Batch of 3 targets.
Target 1
Amino acid sequence: MNLSGAFLELGKRFLLHSLFWLVVLLFFTFFFGFEDADFKTVVTFSAFFLPVTIGTTYVFVYRLIPKYLIPKRYLTFTLYSLAAFLISASYITISAFYGIMITVGYGYEEKFPITKSLIYILISVYLVVAIASAFSLLKNNYSAAAKNEELKNRILEAQLKLKEQELQYLKMQIHPHFLFNTLNTIYGLSLTNNQATPEMILQLSDLLDYILYQTRKPLVKLEDEVNHIRNYIDLEKKRFREDLEINFHSDPIPEKVQIAPMLLLPFVENSFKHGKGNDGKLKITIELSLDDEIMNFRIINSLGEKTERSDGEGIGLENIRRRLQILYENDHELKVEDDKDNFCVSLNLNLAKNPTNVR
């Protein structure tokens, strides 16, 4: 805030406070009126109580409430409040005495019995203090609630950004062995001038375009995900040749059905990376079916006796679990089964629900 803005804000606060105390003076004038007294006399008498009322109010509003009551220092607040009441009550008594002496004179007992009216004055002054203090508490509570809401929104926004960054990181977890092996295969084919070389380069280019660029989208067509799985399988067929037996079946997929990108392809990549058969052949079965917009995906790969088994499920599957938890928290079911001969992954996904945390 610049200097002129600060002065403008200060001027507005001063004006509002002045109007408030003018209303308080009129309030005192109305309630402190007594017999045979004209308006000027009553206003003069009421004005004697403004300084102590203003002082007591500001002590509570700007000192006791924010420093002791709001931080829940109740004992200290109570002690200071009692002290403030005792001091202010003394000043109110003195103000009442001098106010009556000046406005009414020594015959005040006939028109203004001090013992009876002093309690009335104390109640009136402390009523103003109580109203102002209550308003201050409401204002502080509103400000605190607004700040908490803003802080909550900032925390949620930060968490969302972290999740988005995590999703980007998880989507880019592509095993370099696939690219390395495929390029080696292409190199070998090129040395023999094999006619499949250009087609394999084009397939690899399409797959890398999908992995590197299309996955930046929050959602892609399920049909595109399946087509790139087929593309991936074709590349692996050229690499494994007769050492691969693969069966891939997919139901017809409506164009409108969408999925978060790179959810299924890592499962396929994982089966090629870790699968192996006792006869030296890798056997993989992939099935994808749709029941309305409930997708059922199942992939089974063979395991040989010499296949290395880790205690966990591997980084790839753990990444997919994390992505599914972020995107489809309550709309998916993932099962992993590992027996002597086969490794099986089953995923049920509700594609009718929009993934959470996706922009």
Target 2
Amino acid sequence: MRIVIAEDDPLLREGLALLLRAESLDVVATTEDPESFLTAVDAHGPDVAIVDVRMPPTHTDEGIKAAVEARHRLPGLAVLVLSAYVEQAFATDLLAGGAARLGYLLKERVGRVEQFLDALHRVADGGTAIDPEVVAQLLTRTRPDTALDRLTARERDVLALMAEGLGNTAIAERLFVTEGAVHKHIRSIFAKLDLAPTDRADRRVTAVLRYLENTQRRV
């Protein structure tokens, strides 16, 4: 796995590089701003980019913009975005073009090495990884008159874990229920959110996006 890191904090940038190299992962470049990050993507053609949301010069959304541009330049690039805080609009923007090979984690998650590496590998393998704290904070911000209000407490738990990118087996293990029960809850979620099966849409992704988009409009 070839990785490019874009992080303006030198301690975190080098710490990430040391951690990943200790796991026998190939960190091909570490960069501190959007321009050098995009140059490194062009030069190395990495499999994964780890990108800070807030980067120079304005420390607002340069990282998100650079990540989107990197995926345009290198289709199929997996991107794991790091943020110090829950950035609701950024989480929605990140997923707006589709959730495959994308992740959004709070920086504090890096210190939980096993969870961080699990998210990194999940994204690199084509999945999605959204920080559970991001999901939890967004779930608490929904207004009562949303479609998500139709969901039971257990269905909301299942949707939250789906948003983190977990599959049915992992959800069952987390909730101490059977896979059959998880499957039943997911079918109910799809029904309550009016998500009919189609050949063009992944209903798991659509359910998460519906939630994020709805929350962004109503907060």
Target 3
Amino acid sequence: MTSMGAGGRPLRAGLIGLGAMGRQHARVMSRLQGVDLVGVVDPCGDPHGAAVGVPVAGSVAELVDLGIDYAVVASPTTTHAHIGLELADAGINALIEKPIAHSSQAASKLVHAFEQRGLVGAVAHIERYNTAVRNLRKRLQDQELGSLYQVVTRRQGPFPSRISDVGVAMDLAIHDLDLTAWMTGEEYVSISARCSHKSGRPHEDLVAVVGQLSEGTIANHLVNWLSPMKERVTVVTGDRGCFVADTLTADLTYYANGSGHNKWEALNTFRGVSEGNVIRYAAIKEEPLAVEHQAFRDALLGHGTDIVGLREGLKTVVLVEALLESAKTGTTVDPGILRFPSPASEDVRLRV
């Protein structure tokens, strides 16, 4: 497949934001086959030289004037909505860093703006492109665990000084909510959460969640910005054993239930009679960010649909709001039926 835009030319791309994540986008975009990175925007300029020789525009409008086919939005979360709407008004397709927006109300406006104009919009939920997670999802779809019992995630690490506009729920827990629903094919029917504020900032820095999914699977998510140890682990347990996915190393390990019993009774008591084979799967590990960009490029060219649509991004923001509402009220929240807004009604409601 030759990755070309209209008239057989490479797609012309722009980048908005040259922060820590934006610089990684610039690196990948500058090497992406069939795509030319033609301009970037950042009010702080390009002190790290991440723009790889392309012009630094002074505004989104100036970037649009360069004749771009799409833009990647890697600016702070609270700016996603107005930048996304400006791009939609200009007829520009967009890949927007997660979360899609800081609130479901803002996210719903983005969904309508892109859909009404027939534009391709996606949310950069990068964890979906991790080799271990994709392998795990395929094995769950193939019923390798049988019935699912529980999904447990642990996502913790040091406080990121670069993030000040949202808390750990919108920045990190959103990954686990998205991945759990996506991997299992189930919806959250209830969420109970607790948050804490240990770092002296206005937003939460620790979250503990218990959720129930539509087929009875229980989800547990532990997320914080308070640990000196970085951890990104997902454990899925079913009636045939469990999978452990480590997205830091892209490793997937399978722990099978045993079919026999040890004759050593004391060892049975210590180790458990259901212990079986342990398999760590070999796989070609690709950089998730590169795979994500390839998928969006292919979607623009009509060659693939492996992207996280804006409506999916909106749905996950609603789940984060349910989490925060639960923590605020000390109650279990039912996310209810997500009522996608019509052009005349641009709101999203949570039934609590």
